[in-house]
Structures are given as structure tokens and as C-alpha cells.
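One-letter codes give the sequence; the fold follows as C-alpha cells. Both lines appear below.
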Amino acid sequence: MSEKVIKAALLGLGTVGSGVYKVLRNQKEEMPHKIGAVVEVEKILVRNLKKASAKVENPEILTNDWKTILEDESIEIVIEVMGGIEPARTYILEALNAGKHVVTANKDLVASHGQELLECAAEHNCDFLFEAAVAGGIPIIRPLKQCLAANHITEIMGIVNGTTNFILTKMTQEGMEFAQALALATELGYAEADPTADIQGLDAGRKMAIMASIAFNSRVTFDDVITEGITQISAKDIRYAKELGCVIKLLGVARNTENGIEVSVRPMLIPETHALATVNDSFNAVFLTGDAVGDAMFYGRGAGELPTASAIAGDVFDVARNIVFECTGRIGCTCYKQLPLKKADEMESRFFLRMHVSDCAGTLASIASVFGNNNVSIAQVIQKNKEGELAELVVVTSKVKEGNFNDAMMIIEGMSVVQKVSKVIRVYGD
């Protein structure tokens, strides 16, 4: 086997960075057989040299000066696990301009600046890989670019945020309210001290932008993704969903339709019979449909030190193989189309609507009349709970254009018989 040594630099030594360091060290004896070379971490960029020294075998590889990495011509691969937009973007661009290959787990950066980074990589015949930017240890970027490249993907959807899936699982299985489930997720380390990006759907939105771009071969940025979080979901909504044969999940859904691409992240009712309905706790899953492969699902740990490090190390191995066989830059940007983005009002969905209305004759008929006048068809109605002179009414619509539904809701919210619209949640499926 080749004795070739490929030197790499690691930018960051936090949870994920430490995981990458461990995985590469543990794989050292296997590397010659798997990739035809050995990848050695030559330098690690850290903020605090003293604090980081306890995490590595040889503290001499630590540095707090990016230039020592950039100007070291022996370093061929840069592994960025710092997170955030800056200085990560600048460092990656400088590395690519210097002819170094880059592996990153930075979903924020790829979702916002992916085109710029991929174009820079192509200009210098460099690899720029980011498998770990979506769904942690679950392989999905490489399958989309390689294994499934012969497909026209029509839909890609998934549960791609472990924090929110854990929260909704506890609300479903143990009857917790949102605040209680979030507190538990924070206590157990599933939720960050500031969970905004997770519970507001922003984290999942960035991942969906990346997957949609690759799946549909057309650029989608984070700003193109409609996002809605789970903060307003209640235990009562969960119970109604169960009565309807559904569970509530935070779903990222991207479709390539005749009228354009639509990408969203929203809490949705999904039938209990769907494969994604059984994905619980902090697990993630991605479900896609292609014209040749049919339906396929990828399932596993979507985050964490070693699952994410697994995806990063896999990319590093891929880059190393390309270096050994002198074929770097062979798979770059796949966004060769410029497909339109569908307007929100033109998107179609079913809706779950929960409201408090006057418990008197003609109330349901007047609400149904408003829906009918706006081309909204009612599929199901549940009326169970009473609070004095008010009744709680749950309506599930057939699939309808969002613009029509919104027009109907503007009228319904102003009706004298409607005391309060408590919740509107989309329902996945026809």
C-alpha cells in the first residue's frame, strides 16, 4: 500500500472538531487500505491554546494564527468546523484560492454562500465537500450527487432537526406541553442555551435549502425557504392529531413542480402510516421520491460529536482518494438549472384549523359558506369540547391553494360567531 501522507488542518476543536480529531486518529491504521494514503492532522486552529492542549496528544500542532495554516504549502486539506459565517467564509475562500481542498460542516455558510464557495473551488480545481452540513451522520448529500444522480427528484422531505423532534416526541408520548418538553431537552443537552434556531425552524430551513438545491439542480438559498417553528404547538393539538390518525412533526418539504420549486419548514400533521411518523426522539430522517428509484428513506443520528465527525471524515477520505488518483474537483456545483420559485399563495396544502365559536344553530353552516365561496373544501369536522357558550371546532380541509385558504381565514377571523382562531397547522398529503 502507498505510504503517501496527506496533511490536513482542522479549524476548530469544539465538540465536532474533537470528534473529527478522534475519528481520524482511530482510523490511521485503516487509511492505507481504504484510501491509499494516511491523512495526518498537521495543525489545529483554536482560540485558547491552553484549554485546547488537553484535547490533543501533541499540543505543538495547535495554533491561533490562521496564516500559519494558509501559508503552509504541505497542508492540502482544510477541515472547517468553527461554524458561523465569518471568519469561516473568509478562511475557506482563502484556502481554496491557495489550492487547498475544503471539507466543512457549516450549514449556515453553505445555505447562504454555497454558490460562491463552489465556484471558487471549481476555479482552482479543488474539492469542496459538505456532507455533514445536513443531517449529521446520515449520508444524503453524496447520495443525491452520485448514487441518485440518474433520477429526477420530485420531492425531498424530512425531519432534520433533532431538538424539535425530541420535543414533539415528548409532547406526543408523555403529554407534555411545549415549555416543559423544551426544558427537558435543555436539561439533557439536546437543546442549546439559546434554542431559537431550532424551535423557530431556522436550522431545518438551512438544511432544506441545501438539499433542495442539490436534488433539483437549481439554486435555493435560505431566504427562499418559508419557515415556521413549533413554539405554538400544544398538547391539545397533538391529541387532536392522534384522533385524526396523525402525528405532528416539524417537516421540511421541498417539491419540484411544473410551476416551480417550493421549499418550506413547518409543523405538519402527517399520517401515522407514513415512514417519517415513526422517527422519534433526536433521530433524523430524509424521505425522497425519484422517477427511477421510487421512494427512499435515510435514517439515523442527525447531530452529535461522533455522528457528525463520521460524515466529515468520510468527506476527508473522499478528498484524499481524489488527491491520490489526481482527480480532484470532479464533482462540484450541480445547480445547472434556473428553475422559478413558486409564490407562497400558489402552494397547495391541506389545513388543520382549531377555533372557538358560538355554540348556536347556523355557526358551522356560516363558516362552511365562507370556505365554499373561496374554493376551500371541508374534509372533516370535529366538535367536542364546550366552554360556556363557546364550542371548540376543528376543521380539516381538502388540498387547497394557500391564497384561497388565507382569503377565507381573513373573513372567518372577523365573523361574530368566531371568538378565536386558536391554531392553523398544515396537513401533509393529498
